[in-house]
Amino acid sequence: MRTGNRADLAVTALDLRDPAQGQAADDYVRGHADGTPFHRPAWLLGVEEATGHRCHLLAAVAPSGRIVGLLPLHHVKSRLFGQALVSSAFAVDGGILADDPSSLAALVRSAEDIARAKGGLSIELRGGPSPAAHWERRENEHLGFVRPLAADDEAELLAVPRKHRAELRKALANPALRVEHGREPRHIRDHYRVYGESVRNLGTPVFPARLFREILARFGEDADFTIVYEGDRPVSAVLTLYHGDRVMPYWGGGVQDARRLRSNELMYYRLMSHGRARGMRLFDFGRSKAGSGQAAWKKSFGFDPQPLSYHSWSPTGEKRDISPQSAKYQRRIDLWKKLPLPVANLIGPYISRGLG
């Protein structure tokens, strides 16, 4: 299906389920300097299958047939939060990838055409270059944290600032704690148990379990779990993506006892070693809200914050509000924290799939 064109450039919606088209898109993402896991067909299809949010993958194609730009757009639908075209859903990145300004402009025009055709939807781009002057640009709301991995475990320990290093040493000296890396069914189960409790304690509904299973299966060896156990009890857990030379811990958390045990510190320290053994060069701690406790914690681990830019546009001027910082959600967040965990995990996925 052709959704836009110029004399020397076409914008086409790729069929992610066609092996050849999916491979061409994946090759382009892997070869692009700004490509992320959230541009890959593995992510796009995983989200679509787990949540029902259809993905429109727009490709700018040169006359030679070579892809020169990509823009994935998940059509997120929710009765509670409204609709939007999001690049990419459930991700912290996924904005436009383009080889040149002409490719970028063609993708932007096609995305705007789709938004209008679908009744005036807003478009949300997480990361990437600025689409156009008439798009809204939001900066300094979120921070990214990336630094090189150290040469070995001892150097990694010394890279952690002294105060936080002391906390990490306590965890390293605790004989009751052990760390596993893996992709087995029990790791999926234990991760979801920890993650569900962690986000409930933050006042956030947990994502559907199928989302984690789909991402793990579709990424193959480019994804795994790191879990810290106190005896047989999982206390900290994270799902990590590996892209290019980056270790990217993504969905992670800890139970109420994690702070006392310093198990989160231990988990990320061991993950750094695990990533180094895989030949990774950078540790990408992901994004955090500016001014949040999570951002301060990452900084205390030796990471310097870098502001992230997000972009949005709407043909009607109306945009959805899904920010947990929004005043209208504060009472709901406070109430969610008090829910019994089984109840939160039962109804949470029905709510969270609409956040995207």
TrEMBL record:
Gene3D superfamilies tied to this protein: 3.40.630.30
Organism field: Sphingobium baderi
Annotated protein name in UniProt: FemAB
BioF2-like acetyltransferase domain residues: 162-299
Pfam family, one: Acetyltransf_6
InterPro entries: Acyl_CoA_acyltransferase (IPR016181), BioF2-like_GNAT_dom (IPR038740), PEP-CTERM_FemAB-rel (IPR017469), PG_Glycine_Bridge_Synth (IPR050644)
